[in-house]
Amino acid sequence: MLVQSNVSLRHLNTFGLDADARFFINVHSVDELAAILHDPEWKNTPKFILGGGSNILLTRDIEALVIHPAIVGITVVEENEETVVLAVGAGEVWHDFVMHCVDKGYGGVENLSLIPGTVGAAPMQNIGAYGVEVKSVIECVEAVDIESGEKRIFSNEECQFGYRESVFKKSLKDKYVITGATFRLNKKPVLNAAYGDVQKTLREMGAEIPTIRDVSEAIMQIRRSKLPDPAEIGNAGSFFKNPEIPVAQFAHLRELFPEIPGYPVDAETTKVPAGWLIERAGWKGYREDDIGVHARQALVLVNYGGGSGAKIKALSEKIRESVNKKFGITLNVEVNIH
């Protein structure tokens, strides 16, 4: 295994930011990962896990051993007439995995088409889009303890999934390397196309009786129309979470702002689109030198080229302060800031 020194991470973060890793290694198997974690030469060196870099804002160089899980493979573990169980390596590109499932007719992840990143990041973030979260199809997650090098299997329940959350972002943050995940998918899928944009796009496509491929294609069309391609404009997708506020607070806001959208979470909580709040606070399309807020989606902060992570972080703090002042809502960041 080759440990490199002073490696640029520009190609491993979708913001396209210049940051260097003091040390860097690709690991292609669980055994390779365990070996580097057990190696006395690196035992006391801080470790930093970096997958596809699609949900991270690098504000400085990383003075650590950056481990990039490059464990790939999609294996059928179990199959019957109704379902199929797939074990997938953490290094697989998420969208490639989704397309594999669509090609095979396996339902459950089609609504998560075109989400950037790797399979290993999916459970950590509990990625979600258009009415589906990845927790609904995960059976278990395989991970390795950074301190001991020991392998552990986390059940769905043990992952403690929440809204863009998991145990790997909370109590076990920086303690485990996710090496793979196991998914249970449907061979006789029930489609989730309740979102208005999805229904509208399916109608425009002429998909009267849509398939999982139709749903996948519709969602890709929507995402491409609303979100910038990181290969063209550096970004990490949604920078902020959609806030969930008490029903009473939402009712008060609706008196002040009758057009404010809200979606019931439960009897006591309403979810408000962060993009709407940011746009109404005047930030949509804002540009400051080489960074800014995307012109079509206020939820996305962008690096037009040559921007810095520190400047993007400072902009995000200005946006949070502005939204809080106007609406009394504190936005929480979805992106991991380092």
UniProtKB/TrEMBL annotation:
A Gene Ontology cellular-component term: cytosol
Protein known as: UDP-N-acetylenolpyruvoylglucosamine reductase
Family to which the UniProt record says this protein belongs: Belongs to the MurB family.
Keywords, in A-Z order: Cell cycle, Cell division, Cell shape, Cell wall biogenesis/degradation, Cytoplasm, FAD, Flavoprotein, NADP, Oxidoreductase, Peptidoglycan synthesis
This enzyme's EC code(s): 1.3.1.98
Positions of the catalytic residues: 164, 238, 334
Function field: Cell wall formation.
Alphabetized GO MF terms: FAD binding; UDP-N-acetylmuramate dehydrogenase activity
Pathway the protein takes part in: Cell wall biogenesis; peptidoglycan biosynthesis
Swiss-Prot/TrEMBL cofactor(s): FAD
Enzyme class: oxidoreductase
Coiled coil: none
Keyword Secreted: no
A Pfam family recorded for this sequence: FAD_binding_4
